[in-house]
Amino acid sequence: MTSSETPVHVTRWGESGPRLVLVHGGVQGSSVGGDHHFAAQQRLAGRGFQLLVPDRPGHGRSPSPGRGDDAGADGEWVAELLGDGAHLVGHSFGGCVALAAASRRPTATRSLTVIEPAMQNVARGDPRVRRLGLQMLRALFLSFSASARARRVFAVLAIPAEIGGSRSPEELARMGRALRRFALPSAATLERQLGELRERGTPLLVITGGWNPAFEAVGDRVAALGAGRRLVVPSSHHFPQLVSDEFNEALAAFVTG
C-alpha cells in the first residue's frame, strides 16, 4: 500500500469475514512492526475475521517518512485501509492514530477499540497520570544517551521482552532520538474526536491491563468522553493483547455484537 507520503507495509491475515484494521504503537526507528505488536491476534483469522496489520511509517518494514510520529498524518492512510467499512483497533499511540482515522472516515468506521491508549492529555489533571508524566520526563531528558533514553522509556512502560527485547545499540539509538521528537495529540484534539464518536454513536471499547494506575485513569476518561465500554484484561505490562486469549474473545464479541 502507498499513502500520500510513503509506502506502508501491510500484513494480511484471513481471507474473508469482518475486516479489522490493527494499528500498533511504538516510536520510529524500531525494526518491530505491527505483526509483532499483534502477534496473538493472528488467531482471529481462523475465527472468521480478516485482519490488516500495517507497519506505521518508520517502523518495521515501512520506510521513514522524514518526520516524527504523527497521529493525524498516520490517520490519513489508516483511513484508506477501512475500504467500504472496517473495525479499527489501536494500541498505545496507535490508539491515537486509529481515533484520527475514525474522525476522518466516520461512516466507514464500524467500531473503535483502543488498548492502553496514549491519550494522557485528556486526564493530565489526575495525580496518577501526572506521576507517569514525571517518570517519562525524567527518562526523556535525564538520560545520558539516546539508547539509554529508549531503555528507560521501555522500563517505564513495562514493554515486554517479545517486543522490546534484543535490539542492537544502533536501533536503540534511533528510537531514543525519535523519542525526543515524539508528541502526543492535544487534549483539545482528542476531546473533539472522542466527542464526534459519542455523537455518532460509534461503538467504542477501551481496554487496559490493570498494571499501571495511570493507564487505568486514562482508560476511564477516554471511555467517558466517547461513551464507550471499559474492560480490564489482566496484564503485567503495556500489551494486554499479547497475554492470553481473553483479549481476542472480548474483541470478537465486541465487533460481532
Any chance you could write out the topology, listing elements then pairs?
Blueprint: E1 10-13, E2 19-23, H1 34-37, E3 50-54, H2 71-81, E4 86-91, H3 93-104, E5 109-115, H4 127-141, H5 146-156, H6 161-164, H7 169-179, H8 187-200, E6 204-208, H9 213-226, E7 229-232, H10 246-256
Parallel strand pairs: 2-3, 2-4, 4-5, 5-6, 6-7
Antiparallel strand pairs: 1-3
Helix pairs in contact: 2-3, 3-8, 4-5, 4-9, 5-7
What attributes characterize this protein structure?
257 residues, globular, Rossmann fold, seven-stranded mixed beta sheet, 10 helices, 7 strands, alpha/beta
Question: Nutshell version of this structure?
Answer:
This protein is 42% helix and 14% strand.
Arrangement of strands in the largest sheet: 1-3-2-4-5-6-7
Helical residues, percent: 40-55%
- What is the makeup of the main sheet? 7 strands, mixed
* Average pLDDT for all residues: 95
How much strand?
5-15%
Question: What is the number of independent domains?
Answer: 1
Name the shape in a single word.
Answer: globular
Secondary-structure content class = alpha/beta
The CATH superfamily name is: Alpha/Beta hydrolase fold, catalytic domain
- Helix/strand order, N-terminal first: EEHEHEHEHHHHHEHEH
The CATH C-level class name: Alpha Beta
End-to-end distance, in Å? 30 Å
| Number of helices, counting only DSSP H or I runs of 4 residues or more | 10
Radius of gyration computed on alpha carbons: 17 Å
